[in-house]
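Extended Data, panel c. Modelled sequence:
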Amino acid sequence: MTQSQALLPVHQALKKCFHAIEEQQEAWSKTIPEFKPLLSSLSNLAEQLQACRKVAFEHTPLKGFPDLQQRLTYKLISAMEDVLEKVAEKMNELQKVRDAVSQQVAAVFHIYTQQAEELGVLASLKRSAVCPSVADMLEWLQDIERHYRNDYLRRKILLQVRYDNLPEIQGLPEVWSNVAEHKQQDLVHDTLLKVSFSWKMGDLGEVSSELIV
């Protein structure tokens, strides 16, 4: 097998992987904003529950309803549980994106490993004016996978709240927004732009011969 023959399946796998990541990024970007109204609702319910627990109903005109506070507390907690279930469903959608990206990246590295000996180090490092090197693209994939893995974990930890910590629940919308602001949101977008430019200038499979030492 020649270097060109070894390089072709690697480039094909890379192209397939980046296309898949583009689709997964669309799913991720669509899901993230859907947390905002849910967390706002959860915060409002936590504020109501905190107020309910502070009120001494026996000293109000509602003292004739001795179980009112208990019933309101139960109703608010039930409503919070319903919202948390919806939040968990959204986290499952993010997890699916994370897992799909990891599987795609793992598949590329598997194919590269199969071809690495025949391909050689120099060919893996060689880049042209219109196409990044295999090493470049493998590194980009690792960065993207790490981004999804870390971002998902960060959000999962953030949402591990308890009912006895109502101030923390009330602050979830703001903290969630801060995560969105500080995450590497441009990483995937910028990387996809780079590989898209390469595809427009010359298909990865078609320019394989240019990269052979």
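Residues 68-119 form the longest helix (52 residues). This feature is highlighted in the accompanying rendering.
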